[in-house]
Amino acid sequence: MPSGPGVIDEAAIRRVVAGAPRGVATFLLTSRTDPEKIAAQQRRTRADTLQLVDRLAPEALRSLRRRLPGVSIVQVVHVRGEHSVEEAVAVAPLVDAVLLDSGDPDLPVRQLGGTGRVHDWSHSRAIVERAGCPVYLAGGLRPANVAAALRAVRPFGVDVCSGVRTDGRIDEGLLRRFMRAARGSGKDGRVRLRR
């Protein structure tokens, strides 16, 4: 990952995957874009879900499907304007889910997650309504805004990183406040949280 907190090496990823309880999805976040290299990374770590934080061409996504049957694919779309709605709708049929974040892959040092920035939730809501697949919401979520985000966007689930960290480390108190706020959002009484 060229940016963002919480980067861990593949040995640590393997330990996390091996220790995950049965029935709990394990996500490998990768900024790689070459299907062969992504497939090799997945085989080394054994995660059952790939979260692709950079754009992949449609043929690269189809290649991953062929190489990794049974592995779920989540494509991150960095919401930076109205064009992001069309980007998400176009990629949705090729993946198992879309995750909406607030990075900027066009910067010299690409921001591919963990920025702590909120994006325009009206674009995210349009994606949820049009994507036809599960949509996760990320991007600047924290205890103070997660309930409003859930009400505004109505995502399948949320993804949190920097919003529950203090000095770069997961803060148990912030995480508990985040969970309480998410559960109290009035969405539907259920909440799916990752990370």
Describe this structure in words.
This protein has 195 residues and is of the alpha/beta class. 36% of the residues lie in helices and 16% in strands. It has 7 helices and 9 strands. It has helices at residues 10-19, 35-45, 58-67, 83-91, 121-131, 146-153, 172-183, and strands at residues 27-30, 49-52, 72-78, 97-101, 135-137, 157-159, 165-166, 169-170, 193-194. The strands form 2 sheets. A 7-stranded parallel sheet has the order 1-2-3-4-5-6-9, covered by helices on one side. It has a two-stranded antiparallel ribbon with strand order 7-8. Helix 2 runs parallel beside helix 3. The longest helix has 12 residues, at 172-183. The chain is globular and about 40 Å long. The mean pLDDT is 87.
Q: Outline, from the CA principal axes?
A: globular
Strand content: 15-25%
List the strand order in the largest sheet.
1-2-3-4-5-6-9
- Report the total helices: 7
Contiguous low-pLDDT stretches (5 residues minimum) are none
| Average pLDDT score | 87
Largest sheet at a glance? 7 strands, parallel
